[in-house]
Amino acid sequence: MVKILTDSSCDLSPAQCEELGVEMLPLTVNFGETSYRANIDISNEEFYEKLAAAPELPKTAQITPAFFEDKFKVYQNSGDDVVCLFISSQMSGTLQSARLAKNLVGADRIHLPDTLNVTFALGLLVEEAVKMRDRGLSAAGIAQEVENLVPRVRLWALIDDLKYLKMGGRLSATSALVASILGICPIITLENGLVEVVGKARGKKSAFKFIREQVAKEPISADFSVTVGHAAVPKTRNDFMEFMGAELKKREVYKLDIGSIVGTHTGPGACGLAYIRK
What we know:
4-stranded parallel sheet, 13 strands, alpha/beta
């Protein structure tokens, strides 16, 4: 039997994972000395409440080789083939931990492609892998197909609240103040497994327009689903989907909530979409 594993940075909810038949392993978020396993010890709502009150940004922690070793032994003993779709190797040591554990266990039925993605772009790859599994592809076949799709994955998102980029040292206090006064929203994407700022827009409508222009340059493939994600701003998500109506029409669209692992860096207010280009 083919099993699919992911981690909580994919921002599929526990209910969505259950429906898809996917096991989600928890990354950890640490507020001071207190650790919380994402989606187990802390919900997204609780996380954003804590984040708003926190004097400094929480820290996120990767999954350890020891955890993977125990997990992989179970699968090795059950004879299952496993495809693991984890956070980009450029953002976390989680994939490295998994590869180390695989070698220690000698788990030759475990497949570990590097997704080079995170949040709702990683969620998109998980959803597509589930479809492949349900079509009867082997674990090796799924891992290869995912690797083939990775260069075609596109994520575009706006950041609405610059407080957390400033707290994380990704934006100077002066730049954050000027941008906030002018109502400037940075636009981010994923490039080579890392988050990059690709543009700035004045206000959300302009940010939506910028994203729509990027999608027009690299159109959405009709063969795959689309994910739309937001960080605790359902109204922005709804407005964005309405604005992108023509691009999303007649497509399978999954809605995901950005959780604690990515929310630590973006804060609340981020919103965007991920898709596989033609």
